[in-house]
Amino acid sequence: MSSTLLQTRSRIKGKKPTFTRQESHRKARVGHEWRKPRGMHSKMRLHVRGKKRSPTPGWGSPREVEGLHPSGLRSVLAATLQQIDSIKEGEGAVIAATVGMRKRVALVEHARKKNITVLNVRDAGAFLKSVSEQMAQRKAARKRPKAAPKKEGKHEEKKEDARKAEHKEEQKEKKEQKGDNGQKPPAQGAGKLTEEEQKKKDKEEQDKLLTKRL
Length: 214
Fold this sequence. Notes:
The chain is mainly α. 48% of the residues lie in helices and 5% in strands. The chain has six helices and two strands; from the N terminus they run H-E-H-E-H-H-H-H. The longest helix is centred in the C-terminal third of the chain and has 27 residues, at 152-178.
């Protein structure tokens, strides 16, 4: 009986249109959520042919299968083992979206032992197998020794500083070798000889002046 009613429901739902608010396809400020048309001259309220459809009892599901899963089971939300234990015959478990992967695996295994259908898991065996493989891969990745992070940035900076220092030293050496205007730098002690010569010249000039006066 329920299978024929489910078929009837699927046939009705396949033909059922999406009920939207009047003028929602014309005006952006009007939302698409269903609102009953109340205008005195509203063609939609008067059910004029060619206008939008309105919800009527004929579009509803048969009362016996209303709210059931396509499999014919009534869905029950489960987030703990106790909630799965409380599921009766003719009901199916729907594991909550807030449940983590480890707990989800435990719930699916428990439901499988109790022969309870999990409605939001297509194949319980394939699901458990894929999850176990993923966990094994994660475990293997954790055991691998972590490579020391390369300090490329600091190393490159040090190299660049060394290059700059070498370049500066080379430039300094070249300048010292060339001297001012490409001439060699004067030998040590050259400045002292010139001073002595200057003193001698000054003395000679003074002697000349004295002899002239005499």
